[in-house]
Every structure is written in structure tokens, then in C-alpha cells.
Amino acid sequence: MNAESHEIVGPGHGPGGSPLAIAISPVLTGRDAYGSMREEILAAAPGAKLIPVSVDGVADESLENVEVLLRGWSMGGDHLDHLVGKAPKLRWIHSVSVGVESVLTPCVRLRGLTVTNGRGVFDQPIAEYAMTMILAICRRLPQLIELQRERTWQPLEAQEMSGVTIGLVGLGGIGCHVAELARPFGARVVAVRRHPGSGSPDGVEVLGGMAALPKLMAISDFVVLAVPLTSETEALVNEDVLAVAKLGSWVINVARGGLIDEVAMLRALRSGPLGGAVLDTFRDEPLPETSQFYRLPNCIVTPHTSWSSGAVLGRTFKVFCDNLRRYGAGEPLLHVVDPELGY
Fold first, then answer.
1. Does the structure show a pLDDT above 50 at 1?
2. pTM for the full predicted model
3. First to last CA, the chain
4. Domains in the chain, start-ordered, CATH in brackets?
């Protein structure tokens, strides 16, 4: 027995512990993005076979030897289960998204598959989106654009950021980035988080756990939702919570549509106390053209685009390839999801 036989390698059945085969679905916006990263993936998993699969979980060849799945943005739970059923050797799913509510299916849980996510990949663009919207609303940009469209010269009074309170619901990567971007403007930043005793960024006042959400709503001019969708956060922003919101405040949702009771949100936008909402994500997507949210003058609707930037694809593949190297070396994977917590 030579020295090499004592080397620790990963669980894969390919060369040096790499996976035999890796299934890859369209990664971000439905386009086949992995072609340009093929060499980097193969460098991280030498000898592995790469098998493209559709967003429906269908491949043109057998998935018998697939041990790893790179699950793209658009693959839903039903289609994922279809693929899992065709891949008996599957051990690990990497979801490019941070939210994994559609990945932790009963089938995935029953198989005990390891799930990792794209934690950290989208923090910067999403935080910039949130701050863009806060600044635009403070400077009355939507109304100014409308006045321009009407060819009306009417100066509007703006609000300075030093007089604004930003409430962060969640202090993960996105929440912390929003706090960092807000600091130079002099805004007051408050937050609630699942574990209020954990450390917080400089200048952030943690009000408590999720039970303190009504207090945050009552004092915040802007409430940024940045928590995962779990059984505990489903409809977190409901009629009772909205009823105590600060008069004229705005809710910005860059997380998941399921965090909001949409009927209660529509009522709060029409009748108060909310001044408005910026909604980048909804329970049903694409948002139907018949949705009442499109018709509200105090609601800014964007097509789940807060994450978008030219840099996210490269970061996505870096996270995946770093974990592929760990998989082949038998090292612990990064960003492993706790199926009980849901993130």
C-alpha cells in the first residue's frame, strides 16, 4: 500500500474523489450560462462529466451517475423532484439562489441530500437596490418623473437621509450591506433578527427578535425585508403588523413574496398607514398583468431584479467551484443549509 492510498479524498466516485457526473440547469435568467465556465468547473472536478438539464429537470442522457446538481434560478420543486428521482447517486444540490424553500422538498429531505446555497453572492446588488429606492423616494424621484411626463415645472420638497430611520428585518448578508451603505448618509438604522444577541454592524440598533417587529414598524420610515421564507416568517408582514406602521412609511421587499400578506398590503397601501411599497418579489411570479399592485400609484413594482448585476454570475460559479474542490478533497462544504431552519 503506497502513501497515496492514505490520502483523504472526497465521497465522489470519479478521479480523486470528484463526482462522476454533474448536472447543470440554466443558472440565472433561463439562459444556458455554464458553457463559458465549463473549464473552471472541470478544473475543480477533474474527470467529471457535465450534463445539461432543462429547467424542467429533463436531460438528453441518463442521470444515473449524477452525484452533484447545480440548480439554477428557475427550477421549481416539482421539476427538482423529477430530476432527483432519476439520479440515484445524487448526494449534493447547490442552489444558486439564497432562498431554498423550493429546494427543500419532501423528496430532497427524505433522501437526506446535502443542500448548499449562494449565500453572499447577491448581497451587494440587492443592498444597492434597496438604497437606490430609499434615496429615490426621499428625493421624490417617482413624482418628479411623472411631472416631467406631464411637462409640469413644480419643485417638490425632499427628505434628507439624516432624518430617516431605516428598519432592517434580518441582519444577514443583505441587511448588513444595507446598513453599511446607509451609514455615510447619517440615517438611523434599527433592526430585528432571529438571534438578537448576535453581533451587529456598527451603528445598528438591534431592537430584539422577530417579536419586536411591531416596534420596528412603528419607528421606521423605510422597512427593508431581508429574511428567508420559512414556516416562521410566512406572512410575517400581516394586517396586525401593518396596522402599527409609521404613518407614511414604506416597505421594501427584496427577499420573498411569501413574507407579505398581499391582501393586507393592498389595504395598507390604499388606506394607510403606509406611504408606499417597493416590491421586487411576489407570491406568484411572473406577477399577472391583472395584479392590482401594478395600478397603485404608491407602489413600485420590479420584476424580481434586485439581485441582478454583471458580477453575480462569476461569483455564483466561484462559490460552486470552491465547494466542488472541497467535495473532491473530502472537506466540509461551505454554505450548507439547515433543513430544519430552512436557510
1. no
2. 0.93
3. 43
4. 3-121+310-329 (3.40.50.720), 123-301 (3.40.50.720)
